[in-house]
Amino acid sequence: MAAVALLDALRALTDFTPPRALPDADFSLLGDVLEAHGLGPLASYQLETTRLGAGLPEAFRERLLGNYQGVVNDNVLKLVSLRNALREAPELPVVLLDAAAYVDWLYPHMAFRPVGEVRIAMRSADREQLVSRVPALHVERTEHEGRTAVLADERITIAVQDALWPGGPAEGPLFERGRPHRAFGPGAARPSAEDALLGTVAEQAGLGLFAPLITYVDVRELLRLELDLRYLHARAADLRLSRALFGSSLLAAHFYPEIADAAARVRPALGIAERLAVERVVEAAKDPAQLRHLRGVDAAARLVVAP
After folding, report:
1. For residues 11-39, b (16+ Cβ closer than 10 Å) or e, as one string?
2. Least confident of 183-192, 211-220, 283-292
3. Which residues on adjacent β-strands are paired with residue 152?
4. Which of 19, 63, 204, 287 has the fewest CB atoms within 10 Å, i.e. is most exposed?
């Protein structure tokens, strides 16, 4: 019953149109889970601007308000710094990834989604041009045989990769199907909805689906968009993400039952053995309050779902 109450409270606090009252919950545990899963800023906004916060403990609200204020400042700094860097080479093709693309696309308020690590996709030759034309940026380190580079200046760190996820197959469709994102320059784009969904799924798979719940909010909102299912399933198969997509869609439907039908539509067909293996991983990942796992559990889950 405690797990059900926690999930009900999490759903209420992360709904963009929340209910009028917050379900009963252990506020200490709820605060821990919200912070651990990157949901503190979104929850704080709902508590401070809707009826949800009425009568709740002041200490609980103040704890989350600190999350909100910190993320607002951090997001503004990172996104403005990224925009300024890209404007030094405005014609170079670049695709914003993950939270940097989602903040003003999937979310109605920029503080709802912590940006965290800024990640963008560029072809290697374009990345080299960016570094040469933005004197403030330097290469801090490279990974995946030089295909991923971490660029930095005194204000921002940017992970630049040539694939949907670091070290993944070098991309073509990601750039070809990108949607213009003119706020970051004429060469800037965000991923198509299908590629965005698979990018998030790949990130979750790299964690054995034990991913922060904010990434399942990303999935929830992406599933509400119009998706080309034929392309999505073919692309998932090409990228070896079918099992991860299957598992992520099950978990998204568990956390947010209102998108269960949309999750079922994107769920690819798997063989019986594959499906059973993924379902075991999903069962282990259903409790957002389980913030630590036995040694080896994550690694075993990755063997099942990671590409």
Report:
1. bbbbbeebeeebeebebeebbebbbebbb
2. 283-292
3. 138, 157
4. 287
